[in-house]
Amino acid sequence: MLRSFLIYLSQAGWAKQIVTGWSFAWNVASRFIAGESTESAIKVVRELNAKGINATLDHLGEHTATAEEAARSADEILGILDAIEEADVRAGVSIKLTQIGMGLDSSICRQNLQRILERAKEYKNFVRIDIEDTPYTDLTIDAYNRMLEAGFSTKIVGMAVQSYLYRAEEDTRKMLETGTRFRLIKGAYKEPPDKAYPKKADVDANFDLLTKILMDGALAAGSPKVSKDGRIPPIPAIATQDEKRIEFARQYAQKINLPKGAFEFQMLHGIRRDLQEQLATEGYQVRIYIPFGTEWYPYFMRRLAERPANLWFFISNFLKK
């Protein structure tokens, strides 16, 4: 119930106006968000790279209202790719298609996505397309497939899959046939019971199943590894802070003899830094999802919904203000 309410608040304009008006809210949110500028995000990437950890940058923003806004958002993503290249850091980018026009017109979105992928191809970098809520799932997969048909390699563009969706296994198996590189996540949107597993135990079980499918797929594809410059990920990116899911992935990789370089763990900026560094020290590939920008409110609220500890951290700061 609480999680559902917080996800509702993440999409409510009136709540955004109230929360972003609290001066202390950004102080709490900055635990999870690497500032508002590209420069601040690149600084965080440098610090992670120094610890042997790679990154993916996400310029926050969703659901642009006009074609002009969508084009500007695409331009900003191009600027991030430029900044990564100039700084020579070990990072790629993650994008949401509603940010570049998916909610307006699919053709507008695809035009912007193609511009972004052309720049990534020039720099030999990687763009991860995030999966949003289910009204956009088919549209997102279609846009991805059209980019492959246009000649873009799976070393340039990849996808994400949410284990709380019933359809996740079928989607994963189908896209693995093309060598798709996946970020496996649990899912952070409010979905109806006919679309997604309502119980955490079922979401976790499906997460483990998808971990196996992705690792088996990686092995069958010859175990492609993280690129030497840290930008292009392997086929499976196991994105979780859940230690049970991480341990399952570790044990299954050992069971099938999948090399450590042929899969990676992805975690969120500001959450479980101890675990991030421990995995990297043990020789696993680790990549941190680094969100930044002024449109931080929806992302922040979804992080509160995911873990009670995050919510209590926020409330304790509220009581101190």
In angstroms, what is the radius of gyration? 18 Å
What would the average pLDDT be, to the nearest integer? Answer: 89
Helix % is: 40-55%
> Which fold name corresponds to the CATH topology of the largest domain?
TIM Barrel
Q: What is the approximate shape?
A: globular
Q: Please summarize the sheet with the most strands.
A: 8 strands, parallel, barrel
CATH class of the largest domain: Alpha Beta
N- and C-termini, Cα separation: 27 Å
Number of helices: 13
Runs in which pLDDT lies below 50 for 5 or more consecutive residues are 317-321
- Strands of the largest sheet, in order across it? 1-2-3-4-5-6-7-8
CATH architecture heading of the largest domain:
Alpha-Beta Barrel
Pathway: Amino-acid degradation; L-proline degradation into L-glutamate; L-glutamate from L-proline: step 1/2
Binding site for FAD: 162, 186-188, 200
Keywords: FAD, Flavoprotein, Nucleotide-binding, Oxidoreductase, Proline metabolism
Cofactor: FAD
Mind explaining what this structure looks like?
- It is a single chain.
- The chain is of the alpha/beta class.
- It has two domains: 1-33 and 296-321, no CATH class; 35-294, TIM Barrel (Alpha-Beta Barrel), CATH 3.20.20.220.
- It is 51% helix and 13% strand.
- The chain contains 13 helices and eight strands.
- An eight-stranded parallel β-barrel has the order 1-2-3-4-5-6-7-8, surrounded by seven helices.
- Strand 1, helix 5 and strand 2 (91-95) form a beta-alpha-beta unit.
- Helix 3 packs antiparallel against helix 13 (308-320), helix 6 packs across helix 7 and helix 9 (200-220) runs parallel beside helix 10 (243-256).
- It is globular and about 50 Å long.
